């Protein structure tokens, strides 16, 4: 019984009494299987261990006076034809079968696990040698190995276990190898290697904990397989025999008397079935439980099932109007008692056809609120309040694309399934509709994209696919949770145009969630500011921007403007030629088959002290270029050089030890903050691997991460908080070169300002060299001294930032700068610029020159040849307008302008 006291003007006016009735939580299906399997297996183990001691007879002792009896006080299950007690023999048979199964599984696990881990982690010749050995062994049937060994060896138990292990390790070795190959390419494993952690510790601390679920599932299936194999061989007479009481041997002996004494065969068969059933039941429940636990552990923006407890809070309204009244949500804290309130008294309403914006820093509760509206809160949450909406009419664009797309299914299959389910059409019509949706969200080659897997696409392309799937649901309310966080400027405008067009044509209600208050102010009619789970301010966009009432709203508006940043200006006097080269690429080619994102004849130089910004749209090859510089990816053609010990070395020819020396002074901040952190380690444990305690504490405080978050797992952090952890880990080793791959794309305005100022301050204090990969031209203008423009794997322009910003030469560079200027204007200006950009993307794939057909200086040469990269002083550009023949006209002052 709980007393709820209501106060008004600090005066208690009434008291209500509410009675809380405890509701017994239903046991999940996988829990039933686990409990039943564990109980059955425990009973069998106790019976095998204690059963023989309950009888006065041993398993091989004969009672001549009692042969083939069914039941006596001395023989509760009867005897066989030799007068041996069946109860004792059944107990011993269960013991022997389980010993054979467990011992052989342990040996197979050790042998196959070690070989699979070594082959998967090191790869190369080691992988080839181990897998060829596995192929040779698996080419011969495993039963033949067991028969040969049982015929040769006289020690029956040892021979049986050895026979089961000759080829039994191959299966687990392949499984472990596959998992190791997948995990060793993960960002957190790459970060651990670059951080100087020893490989043995990486395997033990970083990889094996994430393989635990797979190994446990395989163990529960390997044991019953070994038990069945032993019983089968014993039944046919080449397995375990007298005096050992194997279940298979007992079945074989009882076969001759099955007509007269059928129970002698029923007992061992029942024991064998119970053993196999117990392990299978345990394995099935464990697999389902681990799968659900993996979804909850990865957290992110995965899709948990809708729960009745949540649905009871939702009311169907029959319209696309949404109302939230006094919403409170609490989440259970990991490794701590009690719960934490993440939303407190949140109330707002969205009218039909309205575009409503929600702004707040990372961890403000925006995504949790949207999941509550959709009805997909995690199972450990508690909520109260009222949400007036029909969840079947709500579609959601999630923030993290990796958690939304199935990595084992092609993009086209996932999109077609959604279309068929919602539009009730045929497969051909769904394929046509899928191509239209992919084209509408800015994917240049939708037919090719249909046949790709999600992990082969860039982050921006995956985000566009998620938006297309959400649009395929044909709902009346659309929730967009950070839909443009990982997209470049031009594609952001395309996506916004698509959303605006869909909202207008279908009369949808759009809820746009973002930490970019500039985007919200240009897109929405009303907006709501959230902070720490509470509503700070709500109202018309124009009123809040002109006269914000709360100080936090004013802070967000100030932090959204780069000119307000307190960034130590980069010294732009002694540029390039006077400094020593740190990295150099010469005519580098890298292709991934038919997959976009490669490089085509790229050459660049990064010198000590530079803050080099690499700009380009999603899928242009920015991340590929950065990984090639650090030796994380091989190249097809060209040369990559790095300054190591005061002389240039070929990065593309370094061995394992050479790469360790290269990584000693280099670090990388990865694009995906969730994928860059080990889901099995807390923040403290992940950073403690590479540094001492005091240093970790200093760096975590330096990046602004609260102490209460240090002992949390990545799933318990927001995207911005995970990005702070990644930046802290990169700063731990005090590198000389830092590769920043979209380090602020997942951060809100306040956090972005703090991180940029932090990175720039550290660069000035320690004279670091940065390669800053971004699609934010305003940020490039503010922080860099050199910039390279990358489009479709080609470096189209490079030079000092001030010169390129003042007078861009290449048409694509001019388009990027014009797009930045367009964001300050009205929606009609957005539309015209976005249409022009879409024409560029479409035509660029059909001709030799990327911009043939759209450039006002187009010539016949543009239609037949690929332009080279022409150098003039400190600037380079890939355009025929800058050939030697155009030199005289350019010197006369005829600059190329848009």
Annotation, overall tally of beta strands: 24
Main sheet specs: 8 strands, mixed
Class per helix and strand makeup: alpha/beta
**Span between N and C termini?**
73 Å
Radius of gyration: 33 Å
Summarize the amount of helix as a percent range. Answer: 40-55%
Q: Can you count the helices?
A: 30
Mean pLDDT reading: 77
Outline, from the CA principal axes?
Answer: globular
Task: Give the DSSP E fraction (strand runs of 2 or more residues).
Answer: 15-25%
Instruction: Strand order, main sheet: write it out.
Output: 18-19-20-15-21-22-24-23
| Unreliable residue stretches | 1-27, 295-317, 570-576, 821-847, 891-898
Q: Could you characterize what this model shows?
A:
The chain is 46% helix and 18% strand. It contains 30 helices and 24 strands. The strands form 5 sheets. An 8-stranded mixed β-sheet has the order 18-19-20-15-21-22-24-23, with helices on both faces. It has a 6-stranded mixed β-sheet with strand order 8-9-10-6-11-12, with helices on both faces. Mean pLDDT is 77; it is low at 1-27, 295-317, 570-576, 821-847 and 891-898.
């Amino acid at each position: 019984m709980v007393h709820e006291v209501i106060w008004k003007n600090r005066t208690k006016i009434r008291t209500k009494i509410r009675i809380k009735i405890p509701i017994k939580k239903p046991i999940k299906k996988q829990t039933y299987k686990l409990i039943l399997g564990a109980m059955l297996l425990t009973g069998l183990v106790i019976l095998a261990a204690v059963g023989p001691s309950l009888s006065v007879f041993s398993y091989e002792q004969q009672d001549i006076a009692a042969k083939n009896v069914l039941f006596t006080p001395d023989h509760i299950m009867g005897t066989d034809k030799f007068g041996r007690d069946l109860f004792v023999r059944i107990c011993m048979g269960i013991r022997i079968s389980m010993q054979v199964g467990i011992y052989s599984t342990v040996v197979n696990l050790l042998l196959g696990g070690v070989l699979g881990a070594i082959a998967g982690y090191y790869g190369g010749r080691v992988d080839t040698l181990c897998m060829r050995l596995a192929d040779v062994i698996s080419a011969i049937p495993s039963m033949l190995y067991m028969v040969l060994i049982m015929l040769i060896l006289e020690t029956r138990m040892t021979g049986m276990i050895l026979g089961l292990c000759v080829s039994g390790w191959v299966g687990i070795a392949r499984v472990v190898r596959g998992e190791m190959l997948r995990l060793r390419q993960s960002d957190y494993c790459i970060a651990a290697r670059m951080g100087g952690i020893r490989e043995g510790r990486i395997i033990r601390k970083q990889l094996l904990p994430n393989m635990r679920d797979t190994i446990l599932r395989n163990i529960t299936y390997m044991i019953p397989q070994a038990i069945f194999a032993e019983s089968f061989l014993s039944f046919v007479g080449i397995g375990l025999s007298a005096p050992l009481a194997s279940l298979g041997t007992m079945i074989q002996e009882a076969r001759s008397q099955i007509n007269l004494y059928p129970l002698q065969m029923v007992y061992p068969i029942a024991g064998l079935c119970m053993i196999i059933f117990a392990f299978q039941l345990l394995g099935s429940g464990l697999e389902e439980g681990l799968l659900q636990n993996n979804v909850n552990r990865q957290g992110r923006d995965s899709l948990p099932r809708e729960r009745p407890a949540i649905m009871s809070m939702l009311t169907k309204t029959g319209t696309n109007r949404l109302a939230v009244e006094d919403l409170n949500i609490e989440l259970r804290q990991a490794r701590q008692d009690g719960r934490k309130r993440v939303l407190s008294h949140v109330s707002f309403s969205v009218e039909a056809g309205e575009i409503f914006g929600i702004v707040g820093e990372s961890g403000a509760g925006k995504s949790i609120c949207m999941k509550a509206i959709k009805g997909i809160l995690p199972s450990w949450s508690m909520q109260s309040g009222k949400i007036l909406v029909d969840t079947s009419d709500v579609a959601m664009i999630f923030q993290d694309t990796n958690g939304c797309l199935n990595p084992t299914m092609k993009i086209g299959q996932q999109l077609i399934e959604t279309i068929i389910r919602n539009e009730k059409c045929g497969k051909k019509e769904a394929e046509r509709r899928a191509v239209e949706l992919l084209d509408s969200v800015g994917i240049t080659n939708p037919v090719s994209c249909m046949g790709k897997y999600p992990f082969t696409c860039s982050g921006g392309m995956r985000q566009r696919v998620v938006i297309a799937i959400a649009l395929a649901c044909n709902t009346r309310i659309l929730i967009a949770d950070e839909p443009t966080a990982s997209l470049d400027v031009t594609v952001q405008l395309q996506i916004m145009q698509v959303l605006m067009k869909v909202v207008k044509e279908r009369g949808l209600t759009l809820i746009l969630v973002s930490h970019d208050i500039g985007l919200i102010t240009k897109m929405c009619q009303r907006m709501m500011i959230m902070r720490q789970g509470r509503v700070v301010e709500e109202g018309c966009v124009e009123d809040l921007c002109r006269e914000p009432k709360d100080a936090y709203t004013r802070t967000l508006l100030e932090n959204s403007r780069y000119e307000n940043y307190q960034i130590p200006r980069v010294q732009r006097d002694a540029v390039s030629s006077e400094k020593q080269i740190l990295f150099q690429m010469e005519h580098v080619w890298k292709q991934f088959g038919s997959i976009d994102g490669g490089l085509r004849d790229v050459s660049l130089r990064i010198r000590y002290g530079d803050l080099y910004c690499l700009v380009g749209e999603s899928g242009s090859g920015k991340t590929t270029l950065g990984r090639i510089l650090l030796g994380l990816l091989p190249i097809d053609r060209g040369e990559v050089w790095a300054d190591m010990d005061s002389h240039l070395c070929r990065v593309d020819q370094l061995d394992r030890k050479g790469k360790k020396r290269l990584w000693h002074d280099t670090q990388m901040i990865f694009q995906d903050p969730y994928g860059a952190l080990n889901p099995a380690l807390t923040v403290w444990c992940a950073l403690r691997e590479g540094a001492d305690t005091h240093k970790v504490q200093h760096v975590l405080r330096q990046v602004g991460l609260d102490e209460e978050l240090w002992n949390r797992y990545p799933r318990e952090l927001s995207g911005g908080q995970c990005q702070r952890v990644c930046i802290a880990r990169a700063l731990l080793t005090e590198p000389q070169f830092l590769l920043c791959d979209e380090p602020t794309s997942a951060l809100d305005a306040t956090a972005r300002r703090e991180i940029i100022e932090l990175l720039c301050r550290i660069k000035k204090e320690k004279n670091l060299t940065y390669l800053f990969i971004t699609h934010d031209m305003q940020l490039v203008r503010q922080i860099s001294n050199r910039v390279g423009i990358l489009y479709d794997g080609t470096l189209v322009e490079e030079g000092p930032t001030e010169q390129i910003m003042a007078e861009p030469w290449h048409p694509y560079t001019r388009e990027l700068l014009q797009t930045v200027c367009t964001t300050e204007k009205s929606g009609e200006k957005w539309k015209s610029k976005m249409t022009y950009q879409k024409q560029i993307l479409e035509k660029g794939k059909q001709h030799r020159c990327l911009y043939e057909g759209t450039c006002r200086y187009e010539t016949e040469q543009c239609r037949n040849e690929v332009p080279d990269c022409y150098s003039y002083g400190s600037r380079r550009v890939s355009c025929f307008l800058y050939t030697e023949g155009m030199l005289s006209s350019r010197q006369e002052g005829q600059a190329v302008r848009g």
